Amino acid sequence: MEYKEISRMYRMFAASKREHYAQIEEDKRRNDYSTFHTGIDTPAGELFIATPRELSLICENILRTEQHITSIASSMTSDLFNATKLSLILDEVAYTNAIGDIRSTRRQIKEALETTNNSSSARRFRTFAFLYAEFVNHTVALPAAPKDIRSIYDKVISENNNETRHPDGDLFRKHSVDITGVHHRIVHYGIDSESAIAKAMNDMFRIVYSESMPALIAVLASHFLFEYVHPFYDGNGRTGRYLLSLFLSQMLTAPTILSLSHVILEHRDSYYRAFRTVENPRNRGELTFFVYFMLELIREAQINVITRLEENKAINASLSKTLTSVNSAYGLKAQESQIIFMLMQAEALELLGDVPVENIASFLQIKKQMARQYLGSLEKRHIIEKRRERSPLTFELTDSFKKTYHIEAPRRKNPLI
Fold this sequence. Notes:
Elements lengths: L5 H4 L8 H13 L5 E7 L2 E5 L3 H22 L3 H22 L6 H9 L5 H4 L2 H11 L9 H12 L20 E3 L5 E4 L4 H15 L6 H15 L6 H13 L5 H4 L2 H7 L1 H12 L8 H43 L3 H15 L6 E2 H8 L3 H13 L3 E5 L5 E4 L1 H7 L12
Antiparallel strand pairs: 1-2, 3-4, 5-7, 6-7
């Protein structure tokens, strides 16, 4: 990016006039007709977003690419697209947990979504995973007031209830909090006092719903503000990233949004550094570079998800050909063939192979009792086997069947299995 942080320009100025020239540069950026002002004051200055050409170009590129992703998704069958979305949800929850150093696996998250067991281990990731499933299915309302933020936060941290320092104010924390980085070094102090936090959250909504700022830029600016304010003692990272996903869902496709935490995790140090860039006093409150960095992450997520969607289409086409051979070899009934195809998808599309009986019955649009009859027939022929006996009962393809027909999930970089 040719457009430089003011802090990086200091070395270009004569030592005796650095502050003078830095002030001139700040005034030029702040007073430019195309600059967006937030009205939010920080110790580094009022937060503002300039619009260098690079920012405009990447926004345009992202929106054009979303059209391409929509086109690919619309060319997929509904069962293929739904399987892909579920796999992406498992990734998103696991990766956003990992950013906050919370260990969870895709298997744990999948079982949390499927099980009706109400044990503490079963509940551990259920609520958080369902939050993502709900916004993907467009069944969740956008927050509009500070109380909505608290409601979301309570759901986010519900699985770690006993490990969390709970807010002691009406909605948010009452006392100060600091954020530590490597070697327990303090890297940021959250805003003090609950009244100041509540005001900042209202400012966040003002920005997000502003009609005088491009929506994509406004959402990314609001993400900085939420994490800067740090309204809770614990759980700010996951709450903030969920809010980011929720607000982005109004303009970006679900596959893109559900690929973002993986990219953030891969660039975690740079992600945290982008926050510190805004707080650097020499950058005079400029949010431009944080917004641009987040746009770069979105762009990388788009590239990744296009590859994944295209791979899944190719995998599905290959599974369809394989199913023809399976039907010929076993003389399957139509329902049995559908079950095998569903389980092949669950294996090859990174859904960990097994599927609950309830899901199979729903897919076939039959009662569970009838589904069990078809499953029993396939089990006797050693095509499928039980993976879990209860809570809920699930089936998967046998190892011998998978080996015979070469069915396996692709190997991806750093998978959280």
